[in-house]
Specification:
Length: 136
């Protein structure tokens, strides 16, 4: 039978490896996608940069949540973890919708999507998550 201590140790190891690889990887990814010559020509770069930044927030919040140093920080970390998880799903949905329309209507994609629209979608989704009604 597997002991609970072994499961907790395995969870800790996976968390530390994920954080050790995820933080530098997402920082580099955000830098690449936020470069002016990349983001100015590609509306998908906005979504990918937002995903990288969101993953950073999730990783930092998960670390704070795991450390449980101060109760207020723990509560904030739990809130950020939940919000960034929801934000991730909605960003992937937005990005996938844009890519689907680009495949279905390739000649009209320049008229339908722009950098400004992508930024507005990301900001709108973030605003909704911050001010969403509490559904419990």
């Amino acid at each position: 039978m597997i002991r609970w201590e072994a499961v907790e140790l395995l969870y800790d190891v996976i968390l530390y490896v994920t954080v050790a690889l995820g933080i530098p990887g997402n920082i580099l990814s955000a830098i690449v996608w936020l470069r002016r010559h990349v983001a100015s020509k590609n509306s998908s770069a906005v979504y990918l940069a937002a995903l990288a930044i969101n993953d950073l927030v999730y990783l930092f919040a998960k670390c704070l949540q795991h450390l449980q140093i101060i109760r207020l920080l723990y509560d904030i970390a739990v809130y950020l973890t939940v919000c960034s998880s929801m934000f991730e799903s909605l960003l992937v949905l937005s990005f996938s919708t844009e890519r689907l329309i680009a495949i279905v209507r390739p000649l009209q994609v320049c008229l339908m999507f722009s950098i400004c629209l992508s930024i507005e979608v990301v900001i709108s989704v973030a605003h909704y998550l911050i001010h969403r009604p509490n559904i419990d």
